[in-house]
Every structure is written in C-alpha cells, then in structure tokens.
Design brief:
One of its GO terms (cellular component) is extracellular space. By secondary structure, this protein is of the alpha+beta class. It has an 8-stranded parallel beta barrel, surrounded by 4 helices. The chain is globular, with a radius of gyration of 25 Å.
C-alpha cells in the first residue's frame, strides 16, 4: 500500500513544478477590483468622437496640435464606443482608418495629491492599433484588439495638478497580413470605375469588423508598492493551491505577504505567508462544470494582503482578492478529463455580437445569453474567434460553463501571414491572452487559431512554435487549433492535444444532400483519429436558417432543414462519443452580422437563436439532446432533470 505522506509529497512536487513554469508569466494584467487599497472610476458615457476622413487618414497626426484640438473631435459617442451601427452615415459604418476619442475626466484630488497612489488608465479592448495620450502626453500604444492594455498616468497628472485630465485615444482598425486577424488593403485604381484613392479592406473571416473601443475604459488606483500579478495552479486530488504573487514598486523587496483563502460563507479555510506557497484545503469543494455536478462553479476567494513600511514608519497596505476554483484538466487519447472524470463538451460557438452595440459589452445581453445557454443544457462554448470580455469569463467561472479560449488568429489564409513578423505578433498575443485568463477555472483549453491554411508548407513550424510557446506559458491546459484542412496534409495537427474539426456537410459540401452526412462524417472521424490517435471535438457544424421559413420536404435555409442537419450529425456523434469524440459545438449560438456579400443576407443565419435571441426550431432539437446527454449519468438532482421531462419539439 502506498504511503499517504509520500503520495501527498509527490503531488506537491508536481504542483510546484507546474507552478514554477507558470511563474514565467509575470507581466501582470490583474482584473481591476476594488478593495480597501484600490479604487475604480469608470469612464463610461459620452465621448467626443471623429473619424479622420482625410485622403491619407493621417490628418489627426499632421496637425500642429492633433491630439487635443476639439475641432477634430466633434461627434458624441456612447459606451461602448463602437461607432459602426450607431451612425446614419454609411461611410462611417464601413470606415477604415483612424478614429479619435476624447473626453475630460474629473480625477479625485487626493489621487493626485498622494504620491503613494498609482493612477492607472486601462482600456479593456480597442480594435486594432491604439495610441493613448493624457493631457497631450503619449502614455502608451497597443497592437491588437480584444485584449486589455494600460498605462500608469500619475506622473502626468502630477505634472500640472490644476489641469483637468484630458484623455485622447486614437484607434485604427486597418488589418494587414501581419495582424491578428489578418487582412489586406486593396487599392482599386481604374479611374473609369472608382474615385481617386478608392480602396477596400479585404478580410478572411466571416463576421463584421466592428471597430473602435470595444470595452470599458477606466481609471484605477493601487499603492506605489502593489500586487502586480498572481498565478495559481490547483490540484483536485488533495485540494492544493500553489500560488505565486509578483510584487512591484520601489519597496517590493521589503514587502511582507499574507494569503488567506475563504469559502463561499467567508470562513477561512487556509492561510500562508510569502510570495510563493501552497494553500492546502481540507475536504476541498471542487470546481465542477454545469450539469456535471449538483454544485457547479464553486469558487473560493484568495485574498492577498501586502504590507510595507512607509517613509514615515507607517504601514502601507495593498489588498487584492482573486476567485479560485480547484480543478484539474487532463487529456488522454480518447477522453477529456476534469477532476479525473470524463467530460463531454455539449455546447455552442458564440460571437460578441448584437444589434446596435455590435461587439460592445452589454450586461443585459450577457445575462440573457447565459440564461439561454443553461436553458439549452449547454455546458461549454468556444470564444470564436477572439478573446471575450473578462466579465464573461467571470460569469463562466461562477456558473460552471466550460470555455475553450481562442486567440484572434482567424483567417490565416495567405502564405505571407506565416512570416516572422506574424509569428512574433502571434506569440505576443498568446502571452497577453494567457496572462489575462490563466486563473479562470472555466478556461480548460487554449485555441491558437481558427481555420488557418494549415496545409501550406510554413504552417508546420509556425504552429509548432505557437503551440510550444503557449504550453510553456501554461503547462496545465491542453492546446489546440480549429481546422478545416485535409486530415492527411494538416501540418499543425501533430502538435495539438485535441483535434478540433469544422465541417459543413450537406451545406458548403454537397448542398442539399442530407443523405451523405452519415457516411462522410463517419469517414471524417475515422480518418482523423486513425492518423493522430487524439480525441476529437466537432468544433463547428450547422446550416443557415431564415427564421420562419418552412418547407416539407426540407430545403436549405428552412427551419426543417437545419433540424435534419443537426439530427443527422447527432446520430454519428452518438456512435463516436462512445469511442473518441469528446464534444460537439453547434455553429452558431445566435445569428450575427457579417460584411455585405451575395452569400450573406444581413449576416450569418446559422444561429439556433436569432440575433435578437429568439429560438428557431433547431434550438429545441438541441435542447432535447443536451439535456438527454446531461442526464445520462443519473447523478443530477431533480431540479436539473425537470426541464428534460418537459421538452416538446415544435
């Protein structure tokens, strides 16, 4: 019989090994939270706004005082600051180039007067390249959308304490072959057909390129010596939480740290001291996915208290609380394990997309979507095709919704997008993504790309490098990318942990031929598993539906056709999930906007819900299936079984 003490020691050694690797992520991008030592001021509301319509789109930078000239910034905008769908001007809706945001902010006088306070300006996301000034002083710039960036601005404010705080943000949504996602600008020079200087932005993805500031802009404070970053690695077997706290500031070497873990009732369950350590929770309550356990999404609160002596001998303090879920993820050749139990992804792909707000964060919409996912019986989703707002991941943590966290690496289709500049940027993006989301228990896998041209010769080394980099940043989670390439020629597949395959049988291939789905889908699975011996997720499948269009026999774009496509796929899923298929994610949760084109009638209509979140017939089909799968274990309490007994297809 194994010695319990040696068994515990082995667990702790392995945990420390993972924790040491994860500690390499130390740049710091903690989600802003208020505490006794930290304050937040949201900068929501109306901003002055103007698009630079000059021929070279560069007038704002060429003016003598381009940053703070009010004539440049004259159109009111609102939070979120996405301009495309709030305008009546078609030129602005499809605008490509620089836009400018500007507003004056009242900063509490004590923030400026107290030199022990850091004042930080944070932008949750701006698409794509951003430059930020405070009172005419450039404080930061950032390449890439969908991820936060920030700058410490206390020094600028204290340079002239009597001046108002004026924040100016310039954002350029131009996509090139080296951006993520990639795109290219095409100039059309035929003077008989196009005006002088006419150009179009080509993209390689199927969603609207919403631009501007996507998420909240805010100011927050910390002490001058502060908690800069926290990394946690948990182990379900013995309830251990290894933590690493990075401290920044002039007095960081003299700081003392106390870490306290409390449960949902505020009771202390473990304590530790020092910047690194292990919290051991006796009889720990684990974090479980929705519908996998009667108590999903359980979170502890880990409070880090930093103390340091001030110049006058006083004690200066910083406090930060991080929600922590105890769980472990593992992949075998046929299974995806959460806390050593098989997990089957029955979920959706989503988009941050809605009427008028576009990709802008909207709390009522987020709550509605979570209610719909739980009504549906969905236990998971992929953040297709970019990182979502951090608040959404916090919701997933609390509700037990499992997340495949995807980078904005969608549409890498041109061989020139596999060059060194693209690779360097992709590595930076994965670093920012892992740094931001590494502590979310709901995030169980990283996806580095969607539908790249992975059959091209450079793709092998490119994705080997990106995947290895991501695993080095976080060895506790599997890494994948989503493919629609030929199984035998996919050069990145050898490096992923889970095969994620997109296919639209009887839609893009053999349109209208429902009878081929079973044979072709069986062949798809057998080929992929036969070559790679890795578990498989059907990461996209579906059919467009015009809401209210009916046809019997079913024809494409009718509600009946979508139902038949789903049922045909599901028959094969039920055979293969007994072997090596570990998940199915419908495309898509809801209809969403795309660029205009002859194949899209006001957007993509593959949603099982409309863009306004009303169910199509396919939603009821999927709901019946997902609740049946969830109840197969027989472990769910009566309140979760109840919806299944009330299901009726329309």
């Amino acid at each position: 019989m194994a010695c319990p003490v040696k068994h515990l020691q082995l667990h702790l050694i392995l945990l420390f090994a993972l924790w040491d690797v994860c500690s390499m992520i130390n740049s710091g991008m903690l989600f802003p939270r208020e505490s006794s030592s930290r304050e937040i001021k949201e900068l929501n509301g109306l901003w002055s706004f103007r698009a630079d319509l000059s021929p070279n789109r560069n007038l704002g930078f060429e003016q003598a005082e381009p940053i703070i000239t009010t004539s440049l910034l004259s159109q009111p905008n609102s939070d979120p600051l996405i301009y495309n769908d709030i305008t009546q001007d078609p030129k602005l809706r499809d605008f490509i180039g620089w836009v400018w945001y500007d507003r004056e902010v009242v900063v509490p006088s004590r923030w400026v007067a107290d030199k022990n306070i850091r004042v930080v300006l944070r932008v949750g996301s701006a698409h794509y390249y951003s430059v930020v000034w405070v009172n005419g002083v450039k404080v930061t710039e950032h390449h890439g959308g969908h991820l936060p960036f920030e700058a410490e601005i206390g020094g600028v404010l204290r340079g002239d304490p009597t001046a108002p705080c004026r924040i100016t943000i310039a954002v350029n949504n131009t996509l090139t072959l080296q951006t993520l996602p990639p795109g290219n600008i095409q100039y059309l020079n035929d003077p008989a057909r196009y005006p002088k200087g006419y150009f179009v932005q080509n993209t390689y993805f199927d969603f609207f390129n919403y631009a501007g500031i996507h998420r909240s802009v805010l100011l927050y404070t910390t002490p001058q010596t502060y908690v800069n970053d926290i990394t946690v690695v948990t182990d379900f077997a013995d309830g251990a939480i290894a933590y690493d706290v990075a401290v920044s500031g002039s007095a960081s070497s003299n700081a003392s740290l106390k870490v306290t873990l409390t449960d949902g009732r505020g009771r202390c369950v473990a304590t530790a001291t020092g910047p690194k350590g292990v919290l051991k929770v006796v009889d720990a309550t684990l974090w479980w996915p929705y519908l996998m356990h009667e108590r999903p999404g359980f979170l502890y609160n880990m409070e880090v208290c930093l103390q340091v002596a001030g110049a006058r001998g006083e004690v200066l303090e910083d406090r930060y609380t991080l929600p922590v879920g105890i769980r472990t993820v593992k992949v075998t050749s046929t299974q995806f394990l959460i806390n050593n139990k098989p997990f089957y992804f029955h979920g959706v792909n989503k988009h941050e997309d809605s009427d008028i707000r576009g990709k802008g964060f909207d709390w009522p919409l987020v709550v509605k979507d979570f209610n719909l996912m739980k009504w549906l019986g969905a236990n998971s989703f992929r953040t297709s095709h970019y990182p979502y707002d951090e608040e959404i991941l916090h919701m997933c943590d609390r509700h037990g919704i499992v997340v495949i966290d995807e980078s904005p690496g969608v549409g890498i289709r041109d061989i020139r997008s596999f060059g060194n500049a693209s690779l360097a940027h992709h590595l930076d993006v994965m670093g920012e993504l892992v740094t931001r989301d590494k502590n979310h228990p709901s995030v169980v896998m990283w996806s580095v790309a969607n539908e790249p041209a992975s059959e091209m010769p450079p793709a092998g080394l490119y994705f080997e490098t990106v995947i290895a980099h991501t695993k080095a940043l976080d060895p506790t989670r599997p890494v994948t990318y989503v493919t629609n390439s030929n199984y035998a020629r996919d050069k990145g597949a050898p490096f992923v942990d889970v095969i994620c395959v997109n296919s639209y049988l009887s839609w893009y291939h053999d349109p209208g031929a429902l009878e081929v789905i079973s044979l072709q889908l069986n062949t798809q699975f057998e080929e992929w598993y036969g070559k790679y011996k890795k578990p498989i997720i059907q990461s996209e499948y579906g059919a467009d539906v015009v809401p209210g269009l009916h046809s019997d026999p079913p024809v494409m774009f009718s509600e009946e056709y979508q139902v038949m496509v789903l049922r045909s796929y599901h028959e094969v899923f039920d055979q293969k999930r007994k072997q090596y298929v570990i998940g199915e994610l419908i495309w898509n949760f809801a209809d969403f906007m795309t660029a205009q084109g002859v194949t899209r009638v006001v957007g993509n209509k593959k949603g099982i819900f409309t863009r306004q979140r009303q169910p199509k017939a396919g939603a009821y089909t999927l709901r019946e299936r997902y609740w049946r799968i969830a109840n197969e274990t027989g472990l769910l309490p009566p309140w979760t079984k109840y919806p299944c007994s009330q299901l009726r297809s329309p």
